[in-house]
Amino acid sequence: MLGKIFLVVYLIAQVGVSLVTEYVWDNNEPIKKIGRKTRAIRIFIYAILAIIPMLGAYLPRSPFKYWCLGAGNVWFAFFMYYAPAVLIFCLIAVIIAKARKKKRSRLIGFSLFAAFIPALILSVYGLYHAQQIKVTNEQITIEAPNAQELNDMRIVLIADLHLSVNSTPEMTERMVDLVNEQNPDLILVAGDIFTSNYMGLREPDRYSDALSNMHATYGVYAVCGNHDVDENLFGGFSVSPISEAFRTDEMSGFLDRCGFTILDDEALTIADGAVTVVGRLDERKPGDGTSDRLTPEELLSGCDHNTPILVIEHEPVEFDELNAAGTDAVFCGHTHNGQVFPGNILIHLFNEYAYGVEHIDDMDIIVTAGVGYYGPPIRIGTDGEIMVIDVSFE
Ligand SMILES: [Fe+2]
Question: Which CATH architecture has domain 133-393?
């Protein structure tokens, strides 16, 4: 649904920007003649830019589809800033020209240029910044009689790797090195390992080789997120119904090769039974074409509540239910902390706990900004991160 809304908004913006551009060519005397001669080329370019992301969304699985998907995402990275800037600057130009009773076409022409440069700089910066990974450190304390002998545990939380058409194996390899440098006791992967396809991955074995090199005393435990299913995307948003969103055998095989223990609504104990790790299916897309999953109460009812209960949950939801069921700490991803400005502000309007560590009642909520990116392959105003959480048991 979101994907289809985004598609309509994009096409309207594309037409708006194209009309403004043509107005400038038609109304500036020095470039008018060139404008007429090159109009066909420009219309061809507008059409290509409109069609490529749609081909990425709607073509059947093929290398060309995934090329279009990746190219479309890079175009969005620029256009998402360029389009609003052009439209706002042009509006301002028209108002100024009217107030001064001057011809407005030159001012509008300048506003095209004024929008282009900052949008280009921002998108290039965002592409570069999205490849950087920060290490953040947090500390929590959990009261649990059965874990007192353990004293403490270092957990590395990663999420939202978003391996797909715009990811790079080099970044994954750097992430693995960073994770191992923390000497973790436990590694938790809070979902969105893929971005809604497997076929778009170039060098999938290079990714799985890298990820299989992550080491922790008690292992690597993961859940799948809403993007760990095969579905069509436009600008990062799904245009497929949930009933067609399945985790494929290729995805499952890849996760096996990574050596992850996938917890699909499952609980197990580690450290000789001293700690319980629970993983939930995704709230919206558990991967079987339904939205069905166990409630926190059903999932945790058989767990030993004298052990610390650590829950991995992709989306930061149902905290009251998790708390009531006896969760000590819940580890989430999904929000990307908004990923790109102004998303880093808006995300807090839609999520009570969008990023960071919070303590409510007897439970810690840990939400990471994630490592990767989806849709436009940029980060602006947020950092890709791995989160190191030092847990003390009392
Ligand atoms: Fe994500």
Answer: 4-Layer Sandwich (3.60)
